[in-house]
Write a structure and sequence with these properties.
Elements lengths: L6 H13 L2 H8 L3 H15 L4 E3 L4 E3 L1 H24 L8 E6 L1 H18 L4 E6 L2 H9 L5 E7 L8 E3 L1 E6 L20 E6 L4 H13 L3 E7 L2 H9 L5 E4 L7 E3 L12 E7 L6 H16 L4
Parallel strand pairs: 3-4, 3-5, 8-9
Antiparallel strand pairs: 1-2, 5-12, 6-12, 7-10, 7-11
Length: 298
């Protein structure tokens, strides 16, 4: 008889391949790392090939594992689709309305949402991106079930990840302001800034810090788009405030050289409405917390 592959073996393999660690896959699947490892070894025995290269910290796909992953995705999708059709009494899964800051949306979507929706195909998910201030308003109005927001970091406030905003400028900017305007007080040439839209905590922090030192500024760009702000700073049209970990080769930190005021640390906070209950919400929260841990902060 032709052997068959247990979908749970493929599900464990896919989780390890995507998340890069057995511990992370175990947390995501609600299993022990030893159980996940055993399932992957069973799959390797079944297909007759090593699928993952392992070390003490990470795993990587072998050529055989890379070839199997796409087929595993397709087979799991078909398996889940058949089960949904057969289980007509279960109906559609819950609608989850999630709010994300634009700056972190790509990371969270890639690290958390794709895995959660793959393993919980009944979930109906809608995502809205907006500045954190706007997300707070929408969440308070009851139009979001879960939301990730950036806010100044306060000890003991339950932040899920630490963010260190810094003054950023294009790599080709001069070491100091051309007119050394930072020493000129309120008579200085206004500092050109690329800012996020109203409701962004970075924008508020920058404005307050500059006002405290008496440094004038002018907006060159105001946009809800993370890409637009980055492009304006990289082009040298303005300076701005971004997460230090998001500095690209085209950007450098300029706060000390340009004698700009220090900025307070911020935190990334996950908010979940009291009505957002059930396994699907639990899985989404666990996936996002894993994404936060992968950022290397807190």
């Amino acid at each position: 008889m032709t052997p068959t592959i247990d979908p749970e073996l493929l599900r464990c393999f896919r989780s390890v391949a995507r998340l890069g660690r057995f511990k992370a896959a175990a947390d995501h699947l609600g299993r022990s790392p030893a159980s996940v490892s055993m399932q992957v070894r069973r799959l390797e025995d079944l297909v007759g090939a090593r699928l993952l290269d392992r070390d003490n910290r990470h795993v990587a796909l072998t050529p055989a594992g890379d070839a199997l992953l796409a087929d595993a995705e397709a087979l799991l999708a078909l398996n889940d689709r058949i089960l949904r059709r057969l289980d007509r009494g279960s109906g559609q899964g819950p609608l989850i309305r999630l709010g994300l800051p634009d700056e972190y949306a790509a990371r969270i979507i890639g690290d958390a949402l794709a895995m959660v929706t793959a393993d919980h195909p009944g979930i109906e998910l809608t995502v809205e991106t907006a500045p954190s201030g706007r997300l707070a308003e929408i969440f308070a109005a009851g139009r979001l079930d879960m939301a990730v927001m950036v806010a100044p970091l306060v000890a003991g406030d339950g932040a899920n990840a630490r963010i260190d905003p810094v003054w950023a400028g294009a790599r080709h900017l001069p070491p100091t302001p051309p007119d050394d305007a930072a020493q000129a007080g309120r008579d200085a040439t206004p500092l050109p800034l690329a800012l996020y839209d109203a409701g962004c905590p970075y924008r508020q922090a920058a404005a307050q810090a500059l006002a405290a030192m008496g440094r004038p500024w002018r907006p060159v760009l105001i946009s809800p788009s993370n890409a637009a702000v980055d492009a304006c700073i990289e082009a040298g049209l303005a300076v701005g405030v971004i997460d230090r970990r998001r500095l690209t080769p085209s950007l450098r930190e300029i706060g000390a050289d340009w004698r700009l005021p220090p900025l307070p640390a911020h935190g990334l906070h996950l908010h979940r409405a009291s009505r957002a209950r059930g396994a699907a919400f639990d899985a989404l929260e666990a996936g996002m917390r894993h994404a936060f841990a992968g950022m290397g902060r807190i």
